[in-house]
Amino acid sequence: MQRGPTGHYLPISTVGETARAFVPAPLPPVPALEIDGELGALLDAASTALGRLDGISLLLPDPGLFLYTYVRKEAVLSSQIEGTQSSLSDLLSHELDNTPSGLLEDVSEVSCYVDAMQHGLALLKNGTPLSLRLIREIHARLLDHGRGSGKMPGEFRTSQNWIGGSRPGNARFVPPPPDAVLETMGALELFLHDQPVKTRPLLKAALAHVQFETIHPFLDGNGRLGRLLITFILCAEGVLDAPMLYLSLYLKKHRDDYYRLLQEVRVEGNWEDWLTFFLTGVLETSAAATQTARSLLRIFQRDSEILRSEAASVIRLHQHLQRKPVISIAEAARSLNISAPTAAKALATMESHSIVREITGQQYRKLYTYREYLDVLNEDTI
């Protein structure tokens, strides 16, 4: 259905020129969405895949083994969309205080993403509602340090921004003027709380993501926070018990379609094509994450069998690496409460079985990675 624009334009004057800013109408769309036929079947399939993904915790002896690194992969991918060059190995090394100086800013930015994500999820688990206050608090964490730290962390913008182009006049899109941000975000908050109507969680996440990106309420970090919002909504709605669904890889692979469809919603009201794109992403991403978890389980079980007759320190180290797959000798000694020589010997044993590999090439301050575990998770990242 072609509805026409999903909002109205306002003339603005900024940076010495006039332009038109787009102010979206409150959700849900009017006229109502047509969720039937192929789109209805896709929504059901995506919901089923999401349920299967949420149930992956029944397969994993400890979901934390998967989530610790999977959450960090999402942080890397989402930040790569914004132009950072940090890899998953860089981030995990940074968390052991071994960051190469040239990567410090990029890795620091990704580290903030992990912190913002975990902080938001912890608040939701403790019963804090998904509100504007929570969104601002998460944003403050997201821009705590790094490139965006001087761009009003935790505060809605008070100046005009634009997307693409060097100025509003040649921009790909100009969001609402600053004096319309609070009103449009307030309407989005009501929609998140099922006002004026109750909306199925997956549809709510799909619609709210577009609305957030259209309002672009902050000076920086809108893309990363808009992607986080999808997961926060699904966790807040009880669809996911753990943050297992992240769409950054799908959006990165289909970036041109993603931006085109966002604009088609604004200009033409083409919600159905956007929903088809979004739900396809949920379906594909859920299936891929489920497969990744199963692959990791096979790796863990195979390596446990290989190490079965080794010393207790080696077996304990293998269990630790399933949770944190990058480690130093000092960290291994501290975490397992063993001596540094015993930790070094355990790592050497695992290296002889080709389970870990040393990645610095240095004589001192060596770092080891759980080789195949990181290879699986590093797929599709830089």
Q: Regarding CATH, which class of the largest domain?
A: Mainly Alpha
- What is the overall silhouette? globular
Judged by helices, strands and strand pairing, the structural class is: mainly alpha
Question: H/E order of the elements?
Answer: EEHHHHHHHHHHHHEHHEEH
Percent of residues in beta strands? 5-15%
> How helical, in percent, are the residues?
55-70%
Description:
By secondary structure, the protein is mainly α. It folds into 2 domains: 286 residues, Orthogonal Bundle (Fic-like fold), CATH 1.10.3290.10; 70 residues, Winged helix-like DNA-binding domain superfamily/Winged helix DNA-binding domain (Arc Repressor Mutant, subunit A). Strands 3-5-4 form a 3-stranded antiparallel sheet. A hairpin with a 2-residue loop joins β1 and β2. The protein is globular.
Secondary structure layout:
Layout lengths: L6 E8 L2 E8 L12 H18 L8 H19 L6 H7 L9 H22 L6 H11 L38 H12 L8 H15 L6 H15 L11 H6 L1 H14 L2 H36 L5 H12 L2 E3 H8 L3 H13 L3 E3 L8 E4 H8 L4
Antiparallel strand pairs: 1-2, 3-5, 4-5
Helix pairs in contact: 1-11, 2-4, 4-5, 4-8, 6-7, 7-8, 7-11, 10-11, 11-15, 12-14, 13-14
Outline:
The chain contains 15 helices and five strands. By secondary structure, it is mainly alpha-helical. It is globular, with a radius of gyration of 23 Å.
